[in-house]
């Protein structure tokens, strides 16, 4: 499905409309969507002229959010799902699918920018037409809602930063050799770790592959027969369980012929997680797990992958990719004295798959045989004929509608077309023709990865997977690695009373486990005074606020507005009537037990002295969502966690649901991690290693104009080896 993007304000192409019929069966319909002037239009065929009436249209305003739901199998076709929903009414939503992750990413970016532009127009346009921001407006007219074009400051806010990291940190890798054109690295030892992460050292191979990051990603994700073209270790693979669009459980049987002659066959049971970065980089992460549906196999010894995966970064105008392949694996030798030498040799040998992958793409570039072109020509011609037949059938059905039906549709009140729920109209359930499969599903296509369990999902009710459902699936999984703790096990009764602002101790020496401290601000990079001209970032010199307290809580529900609760540190200062102002970040991790990490920051000067902060505190939620930024950094921990979290600044509002609570002397941000499947996958991985991590974070309000630059940090924090068992129970 082709996608064209003429400019930042227009996007068009074929997408799948994902719906459920009256029996709860999930299905898809192919529609041509056009995003232009903050209006999203839907057609049943590619419109020939701009005056052609759309089937449906929706206004994109500042209340619109877009979530990435990953890849799903719909009618035995793998599509990459994203959902539009109204922040003020979550039932008002539209679920769409694209053929590739790149198409989905372009649509997500375009829709997010449209929502930001709507917010800018709302602020700068005084005489423009009023909009209903309470729902995603749908109508059957092609009349566009013309808006004044937003100023250049909007564009500056949507441009991705050129830097790949916003943290100043030493490299955690040391090169030790080169083999088959691949550079080999080992994880640098941490003197303070006392060998904790070096029992089975992490080794990484790095090479350049002549292929796009998307093509390489598809090749690496496939578990079908095509994998044998490059992966000499792989014998057979299958998906045991599909957890969500970004996470699944896979089982891999390894070949015997590449292992030492005295070594028995090995297999791996892994949890696989993937995501796409804004710059086109793909991250695939693995770690070993237990699963009831896949016990130990006869004739195989189950190895333990402590951490591993791939990072595929586009280079050379996205024509090539730098691929990093990392493994830290326990091969489960029966004699401990064989581990040091043999394990390292086997791991390096396995990393050699990256060289085979490189040669595969070189061979693909050289495949210019006439039979190849003939096959492509026949396939394209067949697809063109299929599309012509579909359009003809659709036209006949449309022309065959009787006048009574048409009059009934015209007579509908505007409210019946007022939200995107109208696109799920049951009358359209049997109107369209089911789309035939466009390609062979058994070999190189995406569906080769999915087993019967994956296909059975077509019969489930179509709805966003909730955090509780995701957690329930993970509940029976015990991760087979050191330091793993199940966050979602049933919370035990805690006799401690909760005093908000004092449940997590402070330790400036960084030696006390399960404690907090402030991080050196110079660790983080922020936009400098000339950022809009040179895109350069500078080291932060300080913070506007000081961290004064932290809470580590658990409950059977979300704990909102901690700053407004009696007896909290915020209310104690409010009772004194002083000038202190508090900024609270409450990170909520949902599940059968909900965990809350609340960070309290304070300033004793008027917020009017910091105009950007004042605008943020006094602004509306749309403005806050478009400006609040987080810089994460795992300064101590395994590679898989560092890679999953990253070191890049990100706007939190467009990705996660944030509830804002404004009090007399405070502003609290309650960040709901469960509102994003991507975030849930990252957090579930982080929690598995939580008591072995040192987590550092910085918070700031993004500066977009010359008047707002340079940026400044609001605050920082450092969390030392948090312990799930030490979270304090919030009693009702």
From TrEMBL:
GO terms for molecular function: lipid binding. It is found in: Endoplasmic reticulum. Residues 148-330 form the START domain. Keywords: Endoplasmic reticulum. Its main location: endoplasmic reticulum. Residues 8-116 form the PH domain. One of its GO terms (cellular component) is endoplasmic reticulum. It comes from the Eukaryota. CDD domains: PH, START. The keyword Disulfide bond does not apply. PANTHER family: ENHANCED DISEASE RESISTANCE-RELATED, PROTEIN ENHANCED DISEASE RESISTANCE 2-LIKE ISOFORM X1. This is START domain-containing protein. It comes from Solanum lycopersicum.
């Amino acid at each position: 499905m082709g996608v064209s993007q003429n400019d930042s304000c227009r996007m068009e192409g074929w997408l799948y409309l994902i719906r459920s019929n009256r029996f709860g069966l999930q299905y898809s319909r192919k529609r041509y969507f056009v995003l232009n002037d903050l209006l999203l239009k839907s057609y049943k065929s590619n419109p020939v002229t701009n005056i052609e009436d759309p089937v449906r249209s929706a206004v994109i305003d500042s209340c619109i959010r877009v979530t990435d739901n990953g890849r799903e199998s719909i009618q035995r076709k793998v599509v990459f799902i994203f959902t539009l929903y109204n922040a003020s009414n979550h039932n008002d939503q539209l679920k769409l699918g694209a053929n590739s992750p790149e198409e989905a990413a372009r649509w997500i970016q375009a829709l997010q920018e449209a929502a930001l532009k709507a917010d800018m127009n709302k602020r700068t346009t005084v005489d423009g037409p009023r909009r209903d921001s309470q729902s995603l407006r749908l109508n059957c007219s092609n009349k566009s809602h013309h808006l004044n074009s937003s100023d250049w400051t909007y564009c500056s806010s949507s441009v991705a930063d050129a830097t790949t990291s916003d943290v100043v940190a030493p490299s955690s890798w040391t090169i030790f050799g080169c083999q088959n054109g691949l550079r080999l690295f080992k994880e640098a030892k941490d003197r303070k770790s006392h060998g904790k992460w070096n029992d089975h050292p992490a080794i990484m191979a790095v090479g350049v592959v002549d292929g796009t990051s998307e093509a390489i990603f598809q090749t690496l994700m496939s578990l079908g027969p095509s994998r044998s073209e490059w992966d000499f270790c792989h014998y057979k693979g299958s998906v045991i369980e599909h957890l969500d669009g970004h996470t699944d459980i896979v089982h891999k049987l390894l070949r015997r012929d590449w292992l030492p002659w005295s070594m028995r066959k090995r297999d791996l049971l892994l949890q696989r997680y993937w995501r796409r970065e804004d710059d086109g980089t793909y991250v695939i992460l693995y770690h070993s797990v237990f699963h009831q549906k896949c016990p130990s196999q006869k004739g195989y010894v189950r190895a333990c992958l402590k951490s591993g995966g791939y990072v595929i970064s586009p280079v050379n105008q996205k024509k090539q990719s730098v691929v990093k392949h990392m493994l830290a694996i326990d091969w489960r030798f029966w004699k401990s004295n064989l581990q040091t030498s043999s394990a390292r040799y086997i791991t390096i040998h396995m990393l050699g798959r990256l060289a085979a992958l490189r040669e595969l793409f070189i061979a693909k570039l050289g495949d210019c045989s006439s039979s190849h072109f003939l096959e492509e020509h026949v396939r394209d011609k067949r697809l063109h004929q299929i599309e012509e037949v579909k359009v003809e059938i659709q036209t006949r059905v449309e022309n065959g509608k009787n006048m009574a039906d048409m009059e009934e549709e015209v007579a509908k009140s505007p409210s019946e077309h007022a939200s995107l729920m109208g696109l799920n109209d049951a009358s359209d359930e049997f109107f369209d023709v089911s789309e035939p499969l466009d390609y062979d599903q058994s070999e190189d296509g995406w569906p080769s990865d999915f087993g019967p369990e994956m296909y059975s999902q077509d019969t489930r009710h179509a709805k966003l997977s909730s955090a509780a459902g995701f957690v329930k699936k993970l509940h029976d999984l015990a991760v087979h690695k050191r330091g793993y703790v199940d966050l979602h096990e049933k919370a035990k009764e805690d006799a401690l009373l909760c005093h908000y602002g004092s449940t997590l101790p402070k330790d400036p020496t960084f030696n006390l486990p399960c404690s907090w401290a402030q991080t050196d601000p110079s660790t983080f990079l922020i936009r400098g005074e000339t950022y809009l001209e040179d895109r350069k970032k500078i080291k932060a010199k300080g913070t506007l606020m000081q961290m004064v307290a932290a809470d580590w809580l658990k409950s059977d529900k979300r704990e909102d507005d901690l700053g407004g609760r009696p007896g909290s540190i915020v209310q104690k200062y409010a009772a004194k009537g002083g000038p202190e102002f508090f900024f609270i970040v409450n990170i909520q991790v949902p599940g059968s037990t909900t965990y809350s990490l609340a960070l309290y920051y304070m300033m004793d000067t008027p917020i009017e002295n910091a105009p950007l902060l004042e605008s943020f505190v006094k602004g509306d939620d749309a403005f806050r969502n478009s400006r609040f930024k987080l810089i994460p950094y795992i300064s101590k921990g395994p590679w898989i966690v560092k890679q999953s979290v990253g070191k890049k600044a990100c706007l939190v509002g467009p990705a996660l649901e944030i509830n804002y609570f404004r009090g007399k002397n405070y502003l609290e941000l309650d960040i709901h991690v469960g509102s994003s499947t991507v975030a849930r996958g990252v957090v579930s991985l982080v929690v598995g290693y939580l008591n072995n991590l040192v987590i550092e974070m910085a918070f700031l309000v993004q500066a977009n104009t010359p008047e707002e630059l340079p940026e400044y940090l609001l605050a920082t924090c450092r969390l030392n080896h948090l312990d799930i068992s030490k979270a304090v129970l919030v009693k009702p």
